[in-house]
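Module 6 notes. Inverse folding takes a fixed backbone as the condition and produces residue identities as the prediction. Think of it as a translation problem where the source language is geometry and the target language is the twenty amino acids. Below is one complete input and output pair. Work through it position by position during the lab.
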């Protein structure tokens, strides 16, 4: 769904209906925001069939988030493609995951795990009553992890071009592939913020991790092409020892 694997884990046998509601919500997001569906609101906007003042509240919210992030990042986060079309996928994934988590919490459920394409929001504990533990994938060996994390209710997002190719680019140099880093993981107060900043920081290349270091309440971990890594000063507090 949404072109990526989605996992929803809510401990207990009584939550099947809630999980179905969450997946229905992801389906609605895909129907509205997919750049690959001719019947989506996004496609209608790009084709001029929908005027800006006619946008749904959801589309308006996502585009507003994108514009604010563009300003915060100095233009490194930009949802307008080189061909002029809008593609807010860099907002939509984290926004949809957070929306799903909020729906679960509103149902009175505190223990959950929502993962869409490797971006994750957790709450509470797993089925054993322990903190959720997640892994950062080794970009050079997909079956391995390089770090295990306890997010403790925070959001975690990883950006990189090693799975989907060069889908993230530097808007200031759109024709130049990002080669200085291969993977950048961000831990934030929630998955939307983590996803936004991971995308922007990856587009910055080698200096992206320093951008994350300078933002309060964010931590990051970057992997370079030679296999070396660099982490922000507070990242270790989330690492499983």
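Target side of the pair, the amino acids:
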């Amino acid at each position: 769904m949404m072109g990526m694997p989605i996992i929803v884990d809510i401990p207990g046998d009584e939550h099947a209906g809630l999980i179905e509601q969450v997946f229905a919500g992801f389906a609605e997001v895909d129907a509205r925001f997919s750049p690959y569906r001719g019947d989506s609101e996004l496609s209608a906007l790009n084709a001029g069939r929908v005027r800006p003042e006619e946008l749904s509240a959801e589309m308006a919210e996502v585009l507003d988030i994108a514009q604010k992030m563009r300003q915060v990042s100095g233009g490194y986060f930009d949802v307008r493609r080189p061909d002029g079309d809008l593609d807010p996928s860099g907002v939509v994934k984290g926004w949809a995951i957070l929306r799903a988590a909020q729906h679960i919490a509103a149902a009175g459920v505190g223990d959950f795990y929502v993962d869409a394409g490797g971006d994750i929001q957790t709450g509470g504990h797993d089925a054993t009553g322990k903190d959720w533990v997640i892994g950062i994938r080794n970009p050079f060996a997909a079956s391995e992890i390089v770090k295990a994390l306890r997010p403790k209710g925070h959001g975690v997002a990883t950006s990189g071009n090693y799975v989907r190719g060069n889908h993230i680019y530097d808007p200031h140099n759109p024709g130049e592939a990002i080669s200085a880093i291969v993977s950048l993981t961000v831990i934030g107060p929630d998955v939307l913020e983590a996803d936004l900043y991971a995308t922007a920081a990856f587009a910055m290349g080698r200096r992206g991790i320093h951008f994350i270091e300078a933002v309060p309440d964010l931590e990051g971990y970057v992997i370079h092409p030679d296999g070396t890594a660099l982490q922000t000063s507070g990242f270790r507090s989330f690492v499983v020892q």
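Reference fact for the lab report: The longest strand covers residues 141-149.
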